[in-house]
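Inputs:
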Amino acid sequence: MRASNLYAPTLRNTPAEAEIISHQLMYRAGMIRKVAGGMYTFLPLGWRVIRKIEQIIREEMDAAGGQEVCMPILQPSELWEESGRWAAYGDEMMRIKDRHHRDFCLGPTHEEMITDLVRDEVRSYKQLPLMLYQIQDKFRDERRPRFGLMRSREFIMKDLYSFDKDVDSMNVSYQKMYDAYTNIYNRMGLEFRPVEADNGAIGGGHSHEFTVLADAGESNIAYCTKCDYAASDEKAELAPIEAAAEEALPLEKVATPGTNTIDSLVSFLNVPIEKTIKAVAYQTDTDQLVLVFVRGDHDVNEVKVINQVPGALDLHMAEEEAIKAAGGYPGFMSPIGVKEGTLILVDPTVMNMANAVAGANEADHHYKNVNPKRDFTQESIVVTDLRMVKEGDPCPHCGAKMTMTRGIEAGQVFTLGTKYSQSMGAVFLDEHGKEQPLYMGCYGIGVGRTMAAAIEQNNDEQGIVWPRAIAPYEVVVVAVNAKKDDQLAYAEEVYGECQQAGP
Ligand code: ATP
Ligand code: MG
């Protein structure tokens, strides 16, 4: 390609809406242009980068045993009704009707369609394992499309789906994909971490997010400074903190007017914050009241809370009436005196506390000398890790200090188990001629998001510093003095040789 012919309209100024550096630099370099919110056209330079990323992904998917297919973007609602996700997917799904008023969506993902494809063809364990993938546009009507390619409404995704005969075999497929992803991000020259992730709504099993480290990232990651443990802040497991041994003193109710926050309580009673117990009351979308207790200086991890309530997908702060009906008092709450049968979740660090301060379930009153092992007596209490990781917490694997960083989720790998095969009846006959559901996994990479992440991680005051493997061009031939015929001829010769050598 001759620079004089290249369609790459550059800009001197940054468009006002481009908040992060990758978006600014892609715009200024003439790689992308906006069509509407969360929709972009790739210009030739940008599209070359996309194709190089796709090619690396394709090679690694093929090497791991994947076979490329191409499914329609437009998907009939009937398939989604079968899995139960037509209603569950919500506003993020772009829905349309055809001329016969039949419902369709523009695929946000393809589990249903691929399960439908495979259930009609796979009959025997001899046809397994099977891995099918595609690289194609996905549509999600994001609440806030932003940061250019990072969170758009139409975006390119590689999605691979694995089908296996049992859990062990599914885990082998998972490991193959995990290794393939590691190769992909290494080949692209990016600094990344496979981070243990919550796979909440999709249900059971393993999940890792492949996270490119960069300050603009939306993911908070906790990682160990010594071993290779890394997890999203929502997922990070935490070991209970021991408290110094103390003799348990008798419970004492004290007046604490107006102290309905931990900070006000700490200054009113002049106690260390580590001696206080924080209460948070939630109601789930299934209308279940959940009272949660963590140490005063800790924060509640709502994902961990949701995971304790079967069937719940969402939480909101509890209504006052619901708290009072259970025997609690908002702002002055502890498990002491709450009705048996109420779901009470207590972080294990709280259970280790001695002579702590907690609410008395009465306006403007707290208890002193709360000893949870002695005083929290309901059978409906569940002691489980509930808190959010913070800088300096001990690693659950080796005990060294953990630190926090930000990253961009560029890809994710999941085991799905039999969630889709069961709801959609995708079965095969095993070695004994018995019908079994297929064990599945799904594995996505955001191609555009990966490009943006590469730029976030690799730029300086001059602009983008491409890792070589994904640079739009690797060689630029310049005749220093184009007026000299011999220089021009030589430049032409080198240009010709480069073209011969391939893209
Ligand atoms: P997020 O949590 O960021 O919304 P997700 O977990 O919903 O993403 P997946 O369903 O795991 O995304 O999709 C696989 C990959 O597709 C993601 O890892 C990401 O790289 C990419 N991706 C998802 N949503 C978008 C989007 N709106 N714009 C660009 N890429 C996206
Ligand atoms: Mg994800």
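The pocket of magnesium ion (ligand 2) is lined by residues 409, 412 (CB under 6 Å). Flag for discussion at group meeting.
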